[in-house]
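Supplementary Text 2. Reproducibility record for the structural model of the 101-residue chain.

All settings were left at their defaults, and a single model was retained for analysis rather than an ensemble. We include the record here because the model underlies the residue-level annotations in Supplementary Table 4.
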Amino acid sequence: MVTYSGFLERFPEFIPHPSGIVLGAIEEASADASEAVFGDQTDRAIKHLAAHIIALQLVQMGAQIGATDGKVYGKGLEATQYGQEYLRMLNSCSSTIGFVM
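Retained model, structure tokens:
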């Protein structure tokens, strides 16, 4: 089970952000990263997907207040290094259970 403190230990770059953003992303990622797919890597997958969700959210927030150019350099999960790692993990697990993204 991914905890707030466990997530921040792995991704300390998110420490300055409100806990609601982090907890919401963990909850969302937990619903999308299945133990049936990831097995003993589920918590790691949840952390990467949550980090991806937060990173995209921060880009959008920055664009809304003019802090960044709002550009994302990829689509979907490819847009962040966290999403790319989640995809790599998903593809690795998927090939062992018979489907590939």
